[in-house]
Amino acid sequence: GIRNDKSERGLLLYDFMTQNSLSDNEAELSKSIIKESVTRDGIPLIIIQFRNRFPECSAEAFSFCVFQAISKYWTDEHAVLFDCTLFTDFDVLDRYTHYLTTLISEEAFANCKRVYFYNTSHYFFQFLSDNLKRGTIWAHMVELGTELLFISAMDDNKTYAKAGLTGYSNSITDDIRVSFNDVSLYQESVGRFIPVKLKIGNEYLHIAFSQQQRHKIAGKMREIDLIDTYKISDLQNIGATTYTGVSNEITMYDSS
Prior knowledge:
Layout (H helix, E strand, L loop, with lengths): L7 H12 L4 H10 E5 L5 E6 L9 H12 L7 E6 L6 H14 L2 H6 E7 L3 H13 L2 H7 L3 E5 L5 H6 L13 E12 L4 E10 L2 E6 L3 E5 L2 E5 L2 E5 L3 E6 L9 E5 L2
Parallel strand pairs: 2-3, 3-4, 4-5
Antiparallel strand pairs: 1-2, 6-7, 7-8, 8-11, 9-10, 12-13
């Protein structure tokens, strides 16, 4: 536990946790950020739901919530699932990465057997890719044997089982009501169309990219499915347009 670690990092972590103890409101918030489960093979699984971090929740309060939850398990094998759905606050994630690097022991990292990323967006993938290339703590975890696994709402039960999970979803992906598979997204930066799957619910819209991203992790080339999610109420306008000259063109404007 945190209190019993008398190492240099352990003392720094204890000071951090003491200085950033949660208010009553933040303590309630932590219950929505952190969930606990087990993997298919019985390893404790800590689920971190980024989207439930309210704007007023600081990087320090967020880190406190995560460390408090994981510290119960980090002397033994455990796994962590980051639910990346709708997450865009990378300033908080940068600060969290800093605290991981400076406060958490090698033992805790070595005992983290798997890190799952659920519904990885283009933005989150770029963040993680940059960190792996720069050799940050995420890369160090891989060096220590942590397996990075990528799953999404588009995966079937067989894929979840192969990843060591019994399944996972959240209220946002459970919102999906209709799917369109024959859709192309125009990438203005490169002037070309790419195939996507469009999933629409009552409150959210999901764009799942048919073309997987390839990235080398721990010397192995991995193929990663990306999915970008938008809150429909954040879309300023949706309508028929003629920018590309292709028939049945629709443009969506994101106001968030």
